[in-house]
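Q: What residues go here?
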């Protein structure tokens, strides 16, 4: 069935309720972006709008099925998708989390000049490339036993800190302080744990990266000052998630939630949207497994940040105080949160699939140092374009349950990117632009070519124009480490 959309505002579109939809669908886009989405929708090969509509049919969904401006098709949910569900009547869906549980970004401010990085660019690139394991199936020095994996699944970043990775202050600037409650290691299969024994402290492949960036432009002086950002200041960003363990959790629970969908007679508009009632035994067990995966990703980024910190200390004789965690936040998550709705304050289970939490000023969840300006939102661009740091707004809290974009969003599938680009050419072109790439996969470089993605400047402008997020700073890449 062809998706019908109506323009609500300059940057907001709506799929009106029809058929089995319980709420409308809402998409943040400008005219040209929506034209592209509608054209792709007509091919049925790249149909993100249909996914927005399908999510709107899931039991217990509240407000609207939403997609941020980086929308593109995903597994069941669109990437950039946000869905809030009533815990009494609603469902939990694997598709609303994805298979890389708590994939996210940590950004670190390094007290060193841009010039020193430029003068030592090759040396810095090699040191980081050799220090942080990357690539498919990569293994790190962080060796674990199964009992230790269980501790990581409950303790998160704190366990990596205990093992000597990072400093205590890091945790203050990590979402949930790097540990979510309610994780149950027994809900995670032995196979998932086994696959993770050597993968904590590794970057992985695909769109994951470790990037040295500099602050190119500041838009909000007050917020930038709170975050410790200055013109030409150096930021290192780490983008990765729960690695093999998170993927295995998603794989393991497909059969569990498929059976639950049948058992509880959940109407599914699409087979990938298998789900279980939140309060069912199956739903509760899956949620506790996801929480374990969330903690695993927190530990992974904490370990990598420790490796990065040590590399910069070796290279430039910096102290721990000169390498500070700005913030860390996930964008493939499942969280119980309190939000102000038309019915008053409600506890809701928020699915964010390729969408970032973006809480406004004043929320208790925001670190005290940032509470006056709001939570940093870390938005990755591509190897050849800008990244951004944003903050949430009060309007965003109301409209999107405090959510934001997570990146640029793809315009080409990986398969199409491989047809259109050659890895060597991508790396050479970026080198000519002053961006040094280190990768273990030329194929991966082609899949992640900047041309495979939307214009991140435009995506950010849409969200800011809509009043949902606000720009703080733009970051430009200097060195990018890929798997």
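A:
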């Amino acid at each position: 069935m062809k998706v019908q959309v109506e323009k609500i505002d300059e940057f907001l579109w709506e799929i009106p309720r029809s058929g089995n939809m319980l709420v409308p669908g809402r998409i943040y886009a400008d005219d040209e972006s929506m034209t592209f989405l509608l054209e792709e929708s007509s091919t049925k090969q790249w149909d993100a709008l249909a996914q927005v509509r399908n999510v709107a049919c899931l039991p217990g969904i509240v407000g609207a099925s939403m997609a941020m401006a980086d929308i593109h098709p995903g597994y069941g949910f669109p990437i950039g998708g946000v869905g809030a569900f009533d815990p009494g009547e609603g469902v939990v869906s694997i598709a609303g989390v994805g298979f890389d549980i708590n994939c996210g970004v940590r950004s670190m401010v390094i007290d060193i000049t841009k010039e020193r990085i430029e003068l030592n660019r090759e040396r810095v690139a090699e040191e980081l490339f050799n220090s942080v394991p990357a690539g498919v199936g990569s293994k790190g020095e962080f060796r674990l036993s199964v009992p230790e994996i269980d501790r990581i699944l409950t303790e998160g970043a704190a366990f990596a800190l205990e093992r000597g990775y990072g400093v205590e202050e890091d945790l203050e600037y990590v979402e949930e302080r790097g540990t979510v409650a309610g994780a149950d290691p027994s809900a995670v299969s032995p196979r998932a744990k086994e696959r993770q024994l050597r993968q904590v402290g590794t970057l992985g492949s695909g769109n994951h990266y470790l990037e040295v960036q500099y602050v190119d432009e500041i838009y909000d002086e007050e917020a930038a000052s709170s975050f410790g950002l200055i013109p030409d200041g150096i930021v290192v960003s780490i983008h990765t998630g729960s690695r093999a363990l998170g993927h295995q959790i998603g794989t393991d629970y497909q059969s569990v939630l498929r059976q639950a969908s049948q058992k509880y007679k959940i109407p599914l508009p699409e087979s990938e949207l298998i789900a279980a009632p939140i309060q069912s035994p199956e739903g509760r067990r899956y949620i506790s497994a996801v929480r374990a995966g969330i903690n695993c990703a927190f530990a992974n980024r904490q370990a990598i940040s420790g490796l990065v910190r040590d590399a910069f200390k070796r290279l430039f004789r910096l102290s721990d105080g000169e390498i500070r965690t700005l913030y860390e936040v996930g964008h493939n998550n499942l969280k119980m949160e309190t939000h102000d709705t038309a019915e008053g304050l409600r506890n809701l289970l928020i699915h964010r699939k390729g969408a970032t939490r973006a809480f406004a000023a004043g929320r208790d969840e925001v670190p005290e140092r940032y509470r006056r300006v709001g939570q940093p939102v870390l938005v990755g661009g591509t190897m050849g374009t800008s990244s951004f740091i944003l903050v949430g707004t009060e309007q965003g809290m109301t409209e999107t349950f405090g959510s934001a974009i997570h990146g640029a969003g793809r315009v080409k599938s990986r398969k199409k990117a491989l047809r259109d680009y050659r890895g060597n050419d991508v790396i050479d072109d970026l080198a000519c632009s002053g961006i040094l790439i280190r990768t273990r996969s030329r194929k991966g470089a082609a899949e992640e070519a900047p041309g495979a993605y939307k214009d991140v400047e435009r995506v950010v402008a849409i969200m800011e124009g809509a009043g949902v997020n606000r720009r703080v700073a733009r970051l430009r890449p200097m060195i990018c480490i890929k798997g």
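A: Context that may help when evaluating the design: The radius of gyration is 21 Å. The longest strand covers residues 469-482.
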